[in-house]
Write a structure and sequence with these properties.
With 115 residues, this protein is α+β, with helices and mostly antiparallel strands. It is built from five helices and four strands; from the N terminus they run αβαβαβαβα. α1 packs antiparallel against α5 and α2 packs parallel to α3. The radius of gyration is 14 Å and the shape is globular. It holds the Pfam family Ribosomal_L7Ae.
Length: 115
């Protein structure tokens, strides 16, 4: 999780994030959004709207373990939707999230089977 925090805060420092629903939608429309990150406590309605937009503009979206308030702490704005606008950083964050997901799934399986 530390790698994810470091990656998101670094993107914020270099200006590679767009924060909030409307700015992220505009970023997708302009072709600038490379990855959309979702807060864990985002409403189902907003998740559905983001999924539609991501499908329409061919932008991958991923859930994160962070709540709206945790995003606020990390990036300085209370936002449940964040777009990464640089491809290299989007790929890095995508890899970190997928690795964390794989790791947690393996731990759950090990716990279920008593390994």
């Amino acid at each position: 999780m530390n790698k994810l925090i470091e990656s998101i805060t670094f993107c914020k420092r270099i200006g590679a994030l767009t924060l909030g629903f409307d700015p992220v939608r505009e970023s997708m429309e302009q072709g600038n959004a490379k990855l959309v990150l979702l807060a864990s406590d985002l409403s189902p309605k907003t998740r559905k709207e983001v999924a539609y937009l991501c499908g329409r503009y061919a932008v991958k979206s991923l859930p994160t373990p962070f709540t709206l308030d945790e995003f606020w702490y990390l990036v300085g704005k209370r936002a449940g939707i964040i777009a990464v606008t640089q491809e290299a950083f989007a790929e890095k964050i995508r890899t970190v999230i997928e690795d964390e997901t794989d790791r947690s799934e393996r731990l759950k399986e090990d716990a279920e089977y008593g390994d």
